[in-house]
TrEMBL record:
InterPro entries with a match to the protein in the record: DUF4685 (IPR032756)
Listed name of the protein: DUF4685 domain-containing protein
Domain DUF4685, chain residue ranges per copy: 24-61
Source organism, top-level taxon: Eukaryota
Amino acid sequence: ISEMPASDGDWDSGVSLQDAESCRAFVPGQELELSPRHEQAKQLLQRARMKARTNPLRASH
Protein backbone atom coordinates (compact mmCIF):
# COMPACT_ATOMS: atom_id res chain seq x y z
CA ILE A 1 0.00 0.00 0.00
CA SER A 2 2.89 2.37 0.81
CA GLU A 3 4.28 1.98 -2.74
CA MET A 4 1.18 3.40 -4.44
CA PRO A 5 1.27 6.93 -2.89
CA ALA A 6 4.98 7.22 -3.71
CA SER A 7 4.45 6.44 -7.40
CA ASP A 8 1.44 8.76 -7.53
CA GLY A 9 3.49 11.54 -5.95
CA ASP A 10 6.24 11.17 -8.57
CA TRP A 11 3.67 11.13 -11.39
CA ASP A 12 1.94 14.23 -10.01
CA SER A 13 5.25 16.06 -9.64
CA GLY A 14 6.14 15.27 -13.27
CA VAL A 15 2.82 16.59 -14.53
CA SER A 16 3.05 19.71 -12.38
CA LEU A 17 6.53 20.43 -13.79
CA GLN A 18 5.23 20.10 -17.36
CA ASP A 19 2.32 22.41 -16.54
CA ALA A 20 4.71 24.96 -15.06
CA GLU A 21 6.88 24.88 -18.21
CA SER A 22 3.84 25.34 -20.47
CA CYS A 23 2.54 28.19 -18.29
CA ARG A 24 5.91 29.99 -18.34
CA ALA A 25 5.81 30.19 -22.14
CA PHE A 26 2.58 32.22 -21.94
CA VAL A 27 3.76 34.58 -19.18
CA PRO A 28 4.90 37.82 -20.91
CA GLY A 29 7.24 38.67 -18.02
CA GLN A 30 9.22 35.45 -18.50
CA GLU A 31 9.24 35.45 -22.29
CA LEU A 32 12.47 37.46 -22.10
CA GLU A 33 14.09 34.62 -20.15
CA LEU A 34 12.86 31.95 -22.55
CA SER A 35 13.63 33.82 -25.78
CA PRO A 36 17.40 33.02 -25.69
CA ARG A 37 16.59 29.34 -25.18
CA HIS A 38 14.09 29.42 -28.04
CA GLU A 39 16.73 31.00 -30.30
CA GLN A 40 19.20 28.25 -29.36
CA ALA A 41 16.56 25.60 -30.04
CA LYS A 42 15.82 27.12 -33.45
CA GLN A 43 19.53 27.15 -34.32
CA LEU A 44 19.92 23.53 -33.20
CA LEU A 45 16.89 22.50 -35.28
CA GLN A 46 18.28 24.32 -38.32
CA ARG A 47 21.67 22.62 -37.87
CA ALA A 48 19.99 19.22 -37.52
CA ARG A 49 18.00 19.83 -40.70
CA MET A 50 21.14 20.86 -42.58
CA LYS A 51 22.93 17.73 -41.37
CA ALA A 52 19.95 15.62 -42.43
CA ARG A 53 20.13 17.15 -45.93
CA THR A 54 23.89 16.60 -46.23
CA ASN A 55 23.81 13.12 -44.63
CA PRO A 56 20.51 11.44 -45.67
CA LEU A 57 21.82 7.97 -44.78
CA ARG A 58 22.45 9.04 -41.18
CA ALA A 59 19.04 10.67 -40.80
CA SER A 60 17.19 7.69 -42.30
CA HIS A 61 17.01 5.95 -38.92
